[in-house]
Predict the 3D structure of the following.
Amino acid sequence: MRHQIALGQLRLRLGSPMYGGAQITRLKLRKYFMLTVGWILTLVGVVVTPMPIPIPLIGLLPLMAGLAILIHYSRRMRRLIQRIRHRVRWLSYMLEHFAHRAPKKIAAILARSHPRSIERHARLQSRPPSDAEGKN
């Protein structure tokens, strides 16, 4: 019984902050790596899309893959895409139409970039102040 407790304490020691810090560093490195891959794919897509190559619009594949990675790992990029989708309605409708036919992972990423938070904020800002708010 004492050996089991000692082994249990040893396991607790292995989970100390020293080892937890290594995991946090690993997660940050993965995030930076994925952001780099996302930006590279996005830039390749932007460069290749207008090129006159035999396969039309072949650059859209790396562009969309790069944007999906950036939306997943970057809050700023997610908010930028939300603003773009809010302003360009036809693009937002097309992405929603595509999300129904896409794999679940891609549909979840597209759902995270939906402009509903911007719409909600605009609705709240456009509402006239009520009488109860004015009396406080």
